Amino acid sequence: MDQVLLTVPDAVYEKAKLKVERSRWAAVKFQKLDRATVTRIVNAVAHAAHAKAQFYADWAVRETGMGVVDHKRQKNEACSRGLVEMYGAEDFVAPRIDAARKIVELPRPAGVIFALIPVTNPVATVYFKTLMALMTRNAIILSPHPGAKAVCADAAAMMAEAAKAAGAPDGVIQVIEEPTIPLIEKLISDERVDLVIATGGPAVVKAAYTSGNPAFGVGPGNAPVLVDDTADLRLAAKRIVASKSFDNSILCTNESTLLAYQTVADALLAAMKSEGAHICTPDEVAKLRKLLFTSQGFNTAMIGKDAAVIAREAGFNAAGAKILVTPVDLVQPEEKLVREKLCPVLAFARVANIDQAIACARSMMRTAGRGHSAAIHSRKETNIMAFAAALPALRVAVNTGCSLGSSGFETHLGPSMTIGTGFSGGSSLSENLTPHHLVQYARIAYNKEAAETFGDFNGVDPLNLPRAQNVALTSVAHNADLDELRRELRKIILEELSAVRAA
Amino acid sequence: MFDYGHFRFESKEDLFDKSIRFWNPDKTKFWQKAGIDLVIDRREGYCLFDMDGRRLIDLHLNGGTYNLGHRHPELIETLKGALDYFDMGNHWFPSVARAALSEALIRVTPGMKYVVFGAGGAEAVDIAIKSARYATKRRKIVSIIKGYHGHGGLSVATGDDRFSKIFLADMPETFIQVPFNDIGAMEQALKSGDIAALIMETIPATYGFPMPKDGYLQACKALCEKYGAMYIADEVQTGMMRCGQLWGWQTYNIQPDIMVTAKGLSGGIYPISACLVNERAGDWLNEDGAAHISTAGGAELGCVVAHKVIEMLHRPETIASVHAVAEFFREAMAEMIQRHGDIFSGVRQRGVVLGLEFNHPEGAVYVSRALYEHGVWAIFSSLDKRVLQWKPGALLSHAMCQEIMDRFDAAMPRARELIAAAGK
Ligand SMILES: Cc1ncc(COP(=O)(O)O)c(C=O)c1O
After folding, report:
1. Of A345, A318, A388, A343, which is closest to residue A257 (Cα–Cα)?
2. Are residues B104 and B224 in the same domain?
3. What ipTM does this complex have?
C-alpha cells in the first residue's frame, strides 16, 4: 500500500525550474523600471521587513535553536532599514557620465540571482540579499538552509508581497520552499541563473564555484583578536565580550582566539570577567574541547547556544556567563579550540610581542579563516599595520568587536552578511558584499583623439529613448516598380526625419 | 541517408515521393507549392527541426497541442513511468487512471458532473452533440459559419461545407449555421424551439481568432436558456490556460452545459480528449453507460499524461508564465504595427491566443512563408487568409520570445516583397 506503483517525475525539481524562468521574466521587466520606482519598491520592502524584525527574530531562534532573539532583531533591523540608510542615496539605475574620459557607463544588473541562505543568520541574510538585489534591479531566488526553511519562506513571501504592492514585476522575489542538496546542485548550475551568492558551509561554497555559473562564495571565518599593551583594556574587554556573545557568536566574523600581550593579560582577563566572561579551569577547558569537537568536526548542536547551556552540556556550571574563555598553551591547528567556533567559547593565549602574535594568528588561520577577518585593540599604528600586513585576513577591525566590526555594522566597511574571503579564501570577492557587486556596466567609449568631441548625454535616458517613426502608410501597391520607388522615397523621408530629430 | 532503425529514407526527396505515392498526394503538394518544404524531424521544447536540420520556432503548436512544449521532459517521464505499468486499458471496466483524471477535471471545472473520454477532438464533439440530443430530445444543432469542430460523423456537419460536401456528410436541415457575432441571427436560429444545442468555439480558431464582441457569448448562452437549447463550449484550442484561465469560457463569465477539450490535454504525447457534461447532459451515463463506446477513448496512458498536464497547468509559475508571454506579445506586436503598419494592420488577442491581421486578402500566407524563411513556423487561418494564427506556448522563455520578435521584425521586408509580388 505504501509503495508508489508508478515511477513519477521529480515534481519539486520541475516546479523549481519554472521558478527560474519566472525569475528571468521578472529580471527583464525589472530592468525597465526607473530609479523612482526602484526606490519606492526598495523602501516598501525595507519598511515591511523592518516592521517584522522582532517577529522573525523570535521565529528564527525557535526554528533553528541558535542565537539570541534580541541580537537577531538588531541584525534584521540593520539589514532592512539600515541598508536603505546606507545605500538609499546611491543611484544604481542612471547611466554614469565621465566626460573627462569620454565614457558613459550603462548599468547592467546581473539578472537572476540564486542566493543560498545559511542556517546561522537566516532572516538577516534573506533581508540583506533581497534588498541588495532589489536596489540593483535584480530578481532573486532564495534558497534557505533546510534547518531554517519555514522562517525564510515566510520572510521571503512577506517581502515579495510588499514588493509587488509597490509595483515590482511578478516573481522578483521567490523562494525554494523545500530545499534539498541534490535540488540545489541542479538549480545553481541551471544556465538561466546569472549569479550564485553562496553563504554557508564550505561544501555549499564549493558547489557554487563548480556550478559553471558566475558565483560569489565566501569561505569560513576563524578570527584572531590581538590586545597589545597600548589598548584601553577596559574598553577592549567590554567590546570583546559583547562581540563574542553577540547572537552567541553566530556571525562568521566572531572572535575565535584572543591573543593578549603577556604584560596586560591578567588585567584583561579580570576586566573580561567583570563583563560577564567565565574563565575556564584546565579541567573545564578539556571538557569543552571534548564537547565541541567530535570526530566529525565541530559539534553543530552547539552552534549559537548560550554559554551557560554549553557549560552544562560539558559538565560544569557557568550560570549567568556571557562567554566561556578557554586558555590554551598551543596556538596551532592541532589545538582544536583555536579553530572556528560558532558559539560563545573564546580561546585565549598569551604572547610576548607583535611578532609572536603574528606567528600565532597565522598558525591558527592556516587551516581555516584565510581571507576572512581579524581584530586588534591597539593605539600603535605600527602594530596595527604589521598585524594587517602579515595576516591572511582581508579586513582587520580596530578597537571594535570583530562580529559587528568586520561585518561592517560598527565600521565603515559595507554592512554585510556575506564577507568576501578573496583569492586566498577561495572567493572571487574580497570585500564585504554590497549592491555594487550585483551590477556591472556596459561602456560607451569615445575615440581618445581631442578632435573627436564627447557627446552630450545629459538627459539621454536609455529607458525613454525617442520611438521609431510610425510608418503608417497606405496598403502595398500592386506594381512592384512603383513599390520600389515608394520604398526609396520612404527611406529618404525617414532619414531626413531622424536627421532633423538628432539635430 | 536517414536511417530511423525501423525504416530509412534516402533523402527528403525520397520522403516526398513516398508521401505522394502512399500517403496524401494533395497535402504533400500543397505545401510544396506554398514554398514550405517542411518535414518535421526532431522536436524539442518550442522548436522543430526539419529533416535537413533547419531549426524552426513553433508558433503553430498544432493548434495548442504543444502548449507546454514538444516532448516536455516531465511529461515524457510521466508517460515512461506509466508505460512500465499500464497500457491503453479496457474501456469496459472502471479504471484508476480514468477515475483519477475524471475527478481532477471535474474538480477544476465548475458546473460539470461527469467526464466522457475520446481519443480525438472530433470524437469528443460527437459525444457532446449526442449528450445534448439525449438531454433535450431534439435533433438540430446550431453552429457559426466558419466554425470548426473536427471531422467526425456529427462534428463535420457543424463546419465549413468544404469538408462535409465532399463526403456527402452535409446535413443543412439539422445543422444550421449562422454568422459569428450576430446575435440577431442567433436568436432567429434558436427561436424555432427545436434546437438541441449551440456549439461554439470560445474564440473561433480556424476562422483566425476573431474576438467575440462584448457580451456576445453571454447573450448566446442566455438565448440557449430562453429557448431550451444546450450550450456546448469547444475548448479544443482555447482551453489549457491559453486564454489566461484554465478554460476560455471562464474568462467570458459564461457557464456552458457541455464542454470539449482535446489537443493540449494530451501533452502532445498520448492522444486523449474529453467531453465534460453537466448533470442533465450526462444523465445517459445513468441510463446506458455503453451508449458511447471507444476502444482508444480514455486510454489509461493518456489519462496519466493528462492528469499531469492538469497539475502542471495549475502551478502558479505556469499561470505567471502565461501572463508574461501574453503581455510580451501584446507589447511587441503593438510595436510591430508601428513599424510595419503598411502591411500589418491589427492584432486580436486573448492570453496566448492571437490572430495577426494583414491588409492583403492572402497576406498571412505570404507572412507565414516569410517567417518560415526566417526560422519561425506560424500558420495562416485556412478560413480567413488575411489572418496569421499566432499561438505562443504557455511556457515560452523570455529569451525565446525576444528571439521570435527579432526574427519577426527581420522577416517583414521579405513579407512586404512577397505581398507586393502577388499583387491583389
Ligand atoms: C476548435 C477545434 N475543435 C475540434 C477540433 C478537432 O480535433 P481533432 O482534430 O483532435 O479531432 C479541432 C482541431 O483542429 C479544433 O481546432
Report:
1. A345
2. yes
3. 0.90
